Amino acid sequence: xxxxxxxxxxxxxxxxxxETSQATCNVTHVGDTENLLLRGTILTSNGALCDSHVLVExxxxxxxxxxxxxxxxxxxxxxxxxxxxxxxxxxxFINTHEHIGYSTITPLKDIGERTNQRHDWRVxxxxxxxxxxxxxxxxxxxxxxxxxxxxxxxxxxxVGGEMVPGLARNLDFASGLxxxxxAPTATFDVFPLNDASGIQRLGNCDYGAAAxxxxxxxxxxxxxxxxxxxxxxxxxxxxxxxxxxxFDVTPLTDGGGLSTDIIAPNLALIHASSLTxxxxxxxxxxxxxxxxxxxxNVFLYxxxxxxxxxxxxxxxxxxxxxxxxxxxxTMGREAVCGRDVTQKDYDIGIAPQDIWEMMTINAAxxxxxxxxxxxxxxxxxxxxxxxxxxxxxxxAFAQAVYAPSDNLQLVLRGGKILVAGEGLDILATExxxxxxxxxxxxxxxxxxxxxxxxxxxxxxxxxxxxxxLPGIPDGxxxxxxxx
Length: 483
Ligand SMILES: [Zn+2]
Prior knowledge:
Urease, subunit C, domain 1, MTA/SAH_deaminase, five-stranded parallel β-sheet, binds zinc ion, ten-stranded mixed β-sheet
């Protein structure tokens, strides 16, 4: 009770705190590193809590508040105190859309062609140029490399279609959930209509014979499915076939060919960039969710959806990077793209807190882990990131979501330190190594999961697209719409 009362007092809602020139965190007391007390600006759905505290014990959050009542709670505990005044403390980002196995690839070159539906570029349909994306080396190593890239930009959980143990939490694999998290998991589907061969339809649902059915989808805990990726009626036809049982009632002779209706609260539509406002009204009415990947939409199709329409309709929207070839390399760059494209194309500003929710609590809801992840609440897992740097746009949420990875001070997954910034190297002990991060040095602690040092692994991969990306990533696909 006391904690919630303090929340109310502290949440005399603000989105920014005093500006400070302090750029880093400092360890002011070294105690047991299993128990960390973080001090800084805490980001919550009720606003930013200035000069507040988060206590982490045995991998979980055990206190959040102003700290006035902390003394009695700490008792004889010997916690390590990390003072990050001026920095923002956020739940670790959750990336709800990645094809993480494509991470040893460089982004696709922009050939100036914008397609209308994904099979146009996937298989070269309708006379478009096929854009292959061959993975360098093994997919396992690429996945490991991709998870490192996301951890090194503040993402602690991923729905990515592939996984390796020990790095980011993989919310679509029971064996990839990591400490403290348990099944059921999300189901990730690239081809709900069984159309991997490149089937495009208009006015009927004659896709593959093994397309998803209402019964099958309804049995899933969370179903994250690519639907309506593209910008034309052929792309939108996919939504018709999955939202209206009477749209096509004529079966194919070899099976399949029928429309169904899977629009329900356990569904998150990935992309949905071709849907009409009327379609989104149905999505909202049914309580289904949407995963938004604006950069990849803009690069491949020339535009993305107007996310503010979805937000106004009450749809839970989460952000996802899609994949390295046409999407953002980090969640921070995806957030920047989402902000910019919405401002430029639709002349509407998105509040940084709305973007932050797409990267945290909304993402947790999409994947079905909102009771364990996605916010800094007592009892949740201590997946926490800390960003220093200037207060951007006078907004503490902006300081987190638009931050370059240079500003990353701390990444914790279940209280375990994965990244420790300048001045925090004292926290980085076993299995940690110092790495060059732009012009500074940070400590990373991934040796146990990588099975070698990061430097050795990087050397083995040999010249691949980097996993540590200060500033704007090289060759980043455009986020400027062309239609
Ligand atoms: Zn995808």
